[in-house]
Structure formats: structure tokens, C-alpha cells
Amino acid sequence: MGSTNSTLLKIPNVEVLMQETGFSPAHIIRLHDRFKALDKEGRGHLCPHDFGAIKELAMNPIGDRIIGAFFSPGKETVDFHTFVKILAHFRPVDKDRPKEPNSPEPINSRSNKLKFAFQLYDQDKDGKISRDELLQVLRAMLGMQVTDEQLESIADRTIQEADLDRDDAISFEEFRKSLEKINIDHKMSIRFLR
Amino acid sequence: MFFDQQKSVMAFLQHFALLLALIIVFSTSCKAVTLEVGSVEVGYNDSSKSSATEDTSTSINGSTDGHAPSVISTLPIVTWKWHHIETPYLVALWILTCWLCKLVCELNHNVTSVIPESGLLIILGFILGGIIWGADKAQTFKLIPVNFFYYLLPQIVLDASYCMPNKLFFSNLGAILIHAIIGTCWNAATVGTALWACYEGGAMGTLNIGPLQFLLFGALISAVDPVAVIAVFEEVHVNEVLYILVFGESLLNDGVTVVLYNVFDAFVSLGGLKINAAEIVKGIVSFFVVAFGGSFLGVVFAILISMLTRVTKNVQVIEAGFIIVLGYLSYLTAEMLSLSAILSITFCGVCCQKYINANMDEKSVTTLRYTLKVMANGSETMIFVFLGVSAIDKNIWVWNTGFILLTIFFVVVFRFIGVFFLNWVLNQSRLIPIDITDQFVMAYGGLRGAVAYGLAALLDEKKIPEKNLMLGTTLIVVYFTVILQGITMKPLVQWLKVKRAAHSDLKLIEKLNNRAFDHILAAVEDICGRIGDNWWTRGWNRFEENYISWLLMKPKARKNRDYLFSIFHKLNLEDAINYVSEGERQGSLAFSRSDEAANVDFKKQFGSEFADVMPNIMVDMSNYELGIEHFSVTSIVKDTIPSVSLDIHGQDRKNAMDDINAHHLLQQHLYRSRKHHRHKYSRSHFSINQNEDEVQEIFQRTMRSRLESFKSTKMGVNPAKKITKHHKKELTHKMPNGHPDGTGHLYGDEVDIAVGSETGAINSTFMRDTYTVGAGIENPVFLPDMDSPTHSPPWLMETEAVAPSQRAQRRLPWTPNRLRRLAPMRISTCSTDSFLMADVSLTLEEHEEHSQTDHVEMRQVFD
């Protein structure tokens, strides 16, 4: 118990962080350990190449985009707070928790989870997934198995399915609508973060 | 309304009278036989004498001798040879009778919507049993365990496992196994013990049953029957997780029950005194060996089947047969090795489905699917009918109120306790907990069925003196659960507001994002540095892709199997078919005429019809809307209309030039004109009869080839689909060439009513427009006044001329209209791995139902 507290004490503003993310102290400590392990040089923040060192992540077809999601535009580093907040997107929704009327929308809400997914596509941050952006993701995920022509037609079809205002791009609203039927809580949650 | 009902009742009575007549004729013939030969053993007839089988053979031999005397005085022209064909004849007659029962049940949807079909079949079985009893004064026919376990059950299990939503099954395998193994053991133990305790307490008077026999009874009564469960849950459409939990559990639980039954049976034979700790340990060990050994054997057979289908492409016609035979062999082999046969065939089906679907030809997959459905549905029907028939037998009814009532009580109560406790344990670690209403339905869905009855009938009277009491009680429990719980299930699900299955359209974007989510979750797990579910999933997928697929899949199938692409391909085909059937319905399929017009017209006309939803084809939408292109488009439409007719034979007589063109064109599209058509019969090659199927022939081939080249310009986008939805209902009434059957039934009456009332007003106006334009089946060639009023405003034309029936005939002609047992896939579109191949249309139909309600809103958009 003593060690738990001492670890927690080392993290600045840990109370606020727990409040915002809904993580338990055990989670915070675990994530902090992981953070320190990733931060091999002990600078207190992580750089993209720290993530790149994770072997499995390097093999992930959209790994670089996910790494990119940890870094806000223009920044080269991510500190522990941001790190935890990003991961909090993947905390399962807890139904038992009493909902305070004035509290802001939790990070792991449905629309925040979707936003996280959306920004992986939307690399130029214009609030829309253009055909090219979609094509890039498709190319990464489908890889060698299909030809470029096929990829393009898949991308077209996908856009058509979601595109309500016919601007040949998917806005977040359209993205959300097209995935209405999907149980996002299920698909974008990780069990051990509960 | 009243008249309707009366009419259907009349129809019902007529059919029923027919059935009765048949039965009476048949049962009197049986009676004649029985009088003549004495105790006759036919397929389902068991006079519960172990030597009956021998009797049959001897009696049949004897009678043949009698009928064909060695010395004949004159040459007989015809002879009466009943005894030659007696057994197969009776079997066939019974099959026919049972299926007719099903037909009778399905006649009236008002009844089936209240009482589940399984319950009705049992009730009809009572009636049949009564007739036989009346004729024979004894129960000559009943379900005997050998027939049930060897000839009726295997195909049901194989079908269920082959159609199992694989992904869903394996992702919930933990929960299913816990429920199936621990839950079953819990039920068996508690029901047995509690009954024994009550017996000791004096609640049942004096019975000759020891504690071990009670446990044995507890084991056999704890079999939750997949047949009954599927039959009921399929009509209820619960959400997919609940469905797979109940379905998977009931399937595996049967296997576990049989194992448990055998262990207890061995204990009973051993006698209470000889049982010591060592024997109990042996019993537990044998339980696991039998259960897991059976499952393992099933996996081995699955591997065999998959490898076999790699090389069967030259014998395509019997390809599907291999799966059935090998599946059956896996069942029998397990039985031979005294492993769990049900578990063996279950795992065989679940494991091999992915590979055989990839390896075999698409036609073979459909064949297999269909054959399994026929067999499973057929034997399921027979089982239920015979469950009813078997009841009408004086011998088995030994009434003991205490025993029977307490059994029902304990069965229900312990099921509830077990399910709630196990779910509570599981919920501690589940990502999405099973909520309380789902748990309730799960517990309530513990229907007992034929497996329990079969096991009870297997009991040895020498070892268990009260066999008949147990048998009778089992039957009562079966009736109680199937009929009573079956009837109350639907209202209960509605009342508890259990989450229903969400019918979602097959959408590329959903599949794409599912893929993306998988990658994201795997990445986040890596970042967190923990080994979680996704790590395992990914590891397995990689292993599967690299090694298992390499071993079990044809190289060709391996190459071309990216999931997203196959979905895309399917959607494409689907749209192509819709487009053609729509065009044909309107009689304006431009590309079936001249070469030159074919390519161009396709594009143009397509554009004119779909321009609003097809920004890619009509490159410049604004132009179109401003009417700049309007003139040319309509003129093309007008030009092409005279040349459209599918009825080419009429025209090619007129004009020699046309004739050449037509032939050229037909050849190009691999379409044979009617006068050249010959009937061919070949045992090993099956070709579609063009005469009947020329319509689908045309659209399949033509569209396949054409759409390949138009891939980038996809058609049939959502808005167009949505407008068309509600017409389907109308079309089935108005169009003789639609598919009137199936619609009402598939969707259930309540949907129709709901949609009807909601959209009635709009329909009436909308449909009027529609039918002046599209005009059902009539060929526009014969509609000279097509052009002026309806074509002039393009926006009107797009919405209303195209709308009515783009999907009206969308159901593929070869697609089963009513494969009702495909429910697993209907409910779970996300585990589409194996189902998508053949059943896309089915899923989509589901959506139509769903999106019918959307059309009001969509229409406003278009207005």
C-alpha cells in the first residue's frame, strides 16, 4: 500500500487525472510503469521513436497513424497526462457509475471514441475524410491483396455509403451516422482498462 | 377480416382432412400388416422388445415365401408385394406424414405467431398418435433411441454447427463452455439430489429409485435441446450475443449431457456399493476424456474434410456430399470410440465451414447449405411429431404427481439459479456484461427436447425399474417447456424489452471500420504493454493465415480472399442484379439490343435513372439539374425503349438484320434464344435450364461482365434504395411475377401492419405515379405514351420511375425464399465470414424491413 501511494504521489495532479479519465489508481500506476518503460531515456515524455520501438506496433498496418494520434499537431512529445488521456478513450463505459448532471462528457463516451477513430483517417484535420485519405488507410490495411483499381472502387463505394451531402468526403457527422448500428462500446474498448 | 379468417380456417380444414384421409388409409394398411405378420418393426416402431428386429427379418422372409410360392399354376400378371417394400414404404410414408404436418402448421400464420411451430407439431403428433391408437389399439410407432441418435440427430447438429456464426461463437466460447459444462453438471447434480431428498422426505410415496438413479435422471433431464431452442428463439430475434449464448450452450450441452448420462449410467450398473473414491475419480476423468476427445476428433475430421475439398474440383457434383458423409462419419467414429458424438460433429462443422466455403465452388456451397437445411428441417419436424405420437401410449404412463411436479419445479428453478450464478461470475470479467433481462431469457430458454427423451428411452428397465415413470416425466417436462415456455417466450421478450437483433445493412464502411478498430485495439494493447484479447486474436489470425490456410485452402481460394474485397464484390453483384431486374421490370434494359447501343446506353440510361445518386457517372450534377443535359438523356431513353424487349424471338422474325444482331448479341451474352434450346440431361454436369431462367441468366452473365468494367462507378447508393423499400409489399400483391410468398412471412405480420399504417397515405399517392410509369411487368414497347408527361421532369422521373422496384425483384431467383433456419446469420451480420457467401440477399431483405420506415423521411428529401 505504501508503495502504491508513493508512486501515485510522484505523479503531479494525479487526482485531476483520475477524475478526468475515470481510471482507478491501479490503472494509473500500471500505465505509469509502462510509460516509464517506454521512456527509455528518462526524459519524462515520449517521442514518436519511443513508440516505434514497440515491435508489434511497427508491424501494425495503421500503427504510425495511431502513434500520430498521441501527438497533438506541432508537438514532438507527449507527457504522461496526455498519454493517459488518450488511452482513456479505450476504457469501457461503466454503466453503474452515477452520472453527474454537470460533469463534462467523459473521454470514453461513444462520440469521443468515434472521434478518435475519425482523426486516424482525417490526417489533414479539415474535419472530413477525403477520398485520398480513405484510400491511404485502405491501402495500408488491405495491402498487397488487391489492385489499386479495386482499392479505388472500394473507397468510392465506401464514401458513397456514408456521404449524405454528396461532397465526396465523409464529415464526422456522416461518419457517426454511418456507424450508428455498430456497438462502439464493444469495438473500441479494452477489457483490462475497465 | 372475418371472411379472411374463415377462408384460412377452411383451407386449413381442407388440408387437414386430406392429411387425415392419408393417415387413415395408411394406418389401416399398417393394421393389416400387423394382423398378418404380428409384431412388425419398422423405422419408428418399437414394441420395446429387444428381439423385435430379428422378428422383422424372419417375418419378412417368411411372408415373402408365402407370397411367392415355389409352385405356381399360372403366370401372375401383377402381384401384391407389400412385404418386399414394407419397411422403406412405411418410413417414406411417415416422413411424408410428418412433413405434411409441418405444412399444416405453416398454413395459418395467426396460429404460428402465438404457438411456436415445435409446439404445434407436438400437438399434431398427439392427434396422429390418437388415430394410430384408435386403429391398432396399441402404439405401433414411436421414436426409438437408435433411430433418433443415428438417423435424425446428426444432420440437425451438423446443420446447426455448419451454419454457426463462427466468429461470434469463438469470441463467446468461454462463456458458452462454462454454461455448457458447469451449468449442465450443476443442473444434473442439483435436480437429482433435490428429487432424491424430496423422495426421502416422502413427497412421492414409494418408488423403487435409489440416489444414483435420481442422479441419472437429473443428468438426462438437464439436456437443453438445441432443436427446441432454435425453433423458438429464431422466431423471437433476440440480440446476437444472447442468441449465440443460448444456441451454443444448448448445442454443446447436449454433448455434455450424453457424457454425463453415460458416466452415471455406468455408476448405476456398477451398483452403489462398489463405488469408491477411485471410481468417482475415474468417472470425472472419463467425463473430460469423452468430452474433449470427442471435440478433438471433430477437429481432426474438420481438417480431413477441408483437405479433401482442396482436390474435389473435378467431381463438383458430389462435392457437397463429401461433407455430409464425412460429418456423419465423424459422428459415428466418435460413437465407436465411445467419445462424445454430438461434440464431435459440432466441432467438425464449426471448424471446417470457413475452409470448405472457400475451397468449394459457390454452387456446391449453396447445395450443401440447402441439403443440410432440408435434412435438418425434415428430421426436426419428424422428431417433434414423434414426440407427440410417442405420448399416446398407455404403457409408459405411470403417474406420480409428486415426482412429476417436483421435477418440473426443480428443472426450472435450478436452471434459473445456475444461469444467474454463472452469468454473475462471467460478468466480473466481461467487457460488455450480460444484463439481467438477457440472463432471464437465457434461463427461461432452457427448453428440454428430444435428446432428453431419447436418453430416457435408452434407460434399461432391468437396471431402473421405474423407467416408465422417468420416461413419462421426461415427456411431460418436454411438453411443458416446449409448448408452455415456447408460447410465453415471445410475449416475455417483448415485455422485458430484451434487446433485439439489430438488422443492419451490409455496409462496406462498417466492415472497413471494424477492421480499423481491430488494428487500433491491437495497437493500444501494444502501447499499454499488456497481452489482451486482441493480442490473442491477432496472434491466432496470423497463425491461421500463415499455416492453417496454407494447409487447408486451395491456393486459388487463398489468394483471392480479402474479406473487405469480397464484401465489396458481393455488394457489386447485388446491385448489378438489382439494376437489371429493375430494368427488366420496366422493360427498358437498353443493353440487350445492339452492340453499339449496349455500352453507351448502359451508361447513359443508367445515368438518367440514377443520376441523383450517382455523382460519378453523371459527372456534372449541376448541369443535369439545370436541364442542360436533360434533353439528350430523355431522348436516349426514348430511343432505346423500342429496342429493349427481352422477347427477342418475336422481333427477330421480322427483320433479318435484327436477327443477326440479336444472335450476335445473345452469343456475346451467352444467352441462348429459345428456339435453339435443347433439353440435355447429364448426370455429372448440371446446367441451369435457360428456358426457365433466362431472365436470371441474362442478368447474371451480362451484369457480371459489364459491371467489372464499371466498378469504379458504383450504383445503387443508399438514397435510391431507401425510396424503393415500401413498394415491395405492394408489388407482391400487384405483380404476378413478383415473389408473393415469403414476404409476409419473413417479415412477420406486425411489420407489415406497422409500416402499412404509417405510410399508407403516402403510398396511395406515390404508388399511383409509380405504376403509370413503371407499370409492372408490361414491356414499354407496348406503351407508346410513355414519353411525354412522365419523362419531362427529370427529378420526378428519377425518384418515382426508378424508385418503385429497384429492389422489387431483388431477391435472387436461386436464393431460398424461406430458409428459416438461417437465423444465426440473420441475427448476426457481423460474423459474416461464412454466411455472406450465399445469403447476402437474405440479410438485405432484413434491412428492407428495417428501413421501410425510413422512406418517409427520404421522400421528403426528394420532394
UniProtKB/TrEMBL annotation, chain A:
The keyword Transferase does not apply. GO terms for cellular component: cytoplasm; nucleus; plasma membrane. Keywords: Calcium, Cell membrane, Cytoplasm, Lipoprotein, Membrane, Metal-binding, Myristate, Nucleus, Phosphoprotein, Protein transport, Repeat, Transport. PROSITE patterns: EF_HAND_1, EF_HAND_2. GO terms for biological process: protein transport. Belongs to the calcineurin regulatory subunit family. CHP subfamily. This is Calcineurin B homologous protein 1-like. It comes from Cyprinus carpio (Common carp).
Automatic annotation (TrEMBL), chain B:
GO terms for cellular component: brush border membrane; early endosome membrane; recycling endosome membrane. Residues 1-32 form the signal peptide. It catalyses: Na(+)(in) + H(+)(out) = Na(+)(out) + H(+)(in). Residues 45-64 are annotated as: Disordered. It is a multi-pass membrane protein. The chain crosses the membrane at residues 89-107, 119-136, 148-164, 176-197, 209-233, 242-264, 284-305, 317-334, 370-392, 404-426, 469-487. Keywords: Antiport, Cell membrane, Endosome, Ion transport, Membrane, Phosphoprotein, Signal, Sodium, Sodium transport, Transmembrane, Transmembrane helix, Transport. It is found in: Apical cell membrane; Early endosome membrane; Recycling endosome membrane. Pfam families: Na_H_Exchanger (PF00999). It comes from the Eukaryota. One of its GO terms (molecular function) is potassium:proton antiporter activity. One of its GO terms (biological process) is sodium ion import across plasma membrane. Residues 112-495 form the Cation/H+ exchanger transmembrane domain. Belongs to the monovalent cation:proton antiporter 1 (CPA1) transporter (TC 2.A.36) family. Plasma membrane Na(+)/H(+) antiporter. Exchanges intracellular H(+) ions for extracellular Na(+) in 1:1 stoichiometry, playing a key role in salt and fluid absorption and pH homeostasis. Major apical Na(+)/H(+) exchanger in kidney and intestine playing an important role in renal and intestine Na(+) absorption and blood pressure regulation. This is Sodium/hydrogen exchanger. It comes from Cyprinus carpio.
